[in-house]
Amino acid sequence: xxDVGGKRSELLSDWRLLxxxxxxxxxxxxxxxxxxxxxxxxxxxxxxxxxxxxxTAYMMSTLASAVVILWSGKLIDRYDLRIVFGVTTIGLCLAxxxxxxxxxxxxxxxxxxxxxHFGQGLMSHIAVTSVNRYYQTVRxxxxxxxxxxxxxxxxxxxxxxxxxxxxxGWRYSWYVLGVIAACIVLPLLLxxxxxxxxxxxxxxxxxALLEADTSTENLSQxxxxxxxxxxxxxxxxxGVLPVVLAPAFLNTGLMFHHQHIVLSxxxxxxxxxxxxxxxxxxxxxxxxxxxxLVDRNGARSLMPLFTLPxxxxxxxxxxxxxxxxxxxxxxxxxxxAGMTSAVTAPFxxxxxxxxxxxAIKAVATAVMIFASAMSPALYGAMxxxxxxxxxxxxxxxxxxxxxxACAWLALRKS
Length: 414
What we know:
CATH class: Mainly Alpha
Mean pLDDT: 85
Number of strands: 0
Number of helices: 18
Order of helices and strands: HHHHHHHHHHHHHHHHHH
Strand content: under 5%
CATH superfamily: MFS general substrate transporter like domains
Shape: globular
Low-confidence stretches: 1-5, 214-222
Distance between the termini: 26 Å
CATH architecture: Up-down Bundle
CATH topology: Growth Hormone, Chain: A
């Protein structure tokens, strides 16, 4: 995209794509841990499951999603965005219907797999990849704006869906989410990307010019278009993996088992849900700040740093039982969650190029899904084994510090 009027004009020139990405990230909510966790107690009661057993079911389904997305995630490189989005939305609608109709262990596993794959996996992947492919100099800000869809879900859905479950039951609540996906999300977002053929044509023209420009003075690291196989041979990729998966692992564990954590600490669930607004505000603020810094200094510089706020969250989990500590937990975890997409999504495009971004981002998404799969099961097993919340907070701190150190060592010479 030609930057005629500066970076601000580039950001606003394709507002339809920006709005599409933001609403797609919001539409991924039924497959996100935050929403599924709201059904935690009802599902465990309906199927007579312990914390660890439900966590294991969640892990198995999510791991299957992580494996499949290595294939399905690269389809966005091959097929029209409208087709990939349409199939994904239909899949998410089906997932909600299966979740509401599940009657046994196998159908529960199938429902969780479909929710995780089409919701958390593909819908999020589409939202982030599409924006980072078609924006250039303002990827940080664009990613930060798209991230607000996740934040909006975090701020509004816990209270909304909890009230819906109380009013019509957990099964019918899943049906409502499925109807919203089919009747509102699908037609609305397809309208927003109705002109995608023209956008993609401009992108292909840019790729052709880039490939034709082989002069040494114009060829740079950011212009090289890495394949997924080449990326997997790059040591930097493995150095940044721990910091990439840290938010997915720690945030998922916190949100999936939030009811147990809150009650164990003697906190009030109502206070937790109300203070999720602080989580959302922190996420929005730090997401936009990270987006500005990424566009100014590059995503590499922030990769070792953006998870550090979770150290404060770990300290808050280790602290006393006063409800005021909820604010510290949600503020710090929200800050890291907000910066995650604003930093990591531009990082892959900045370091490895955009031509194979779908395939490359699919690996990163699979890693994050894998982390989010392991977290509920491990946390559930620890809770079943009597591990205390302060101990969980200490483990969070160690994890974040080690991950940040690995990323710094991997990128210090870049």
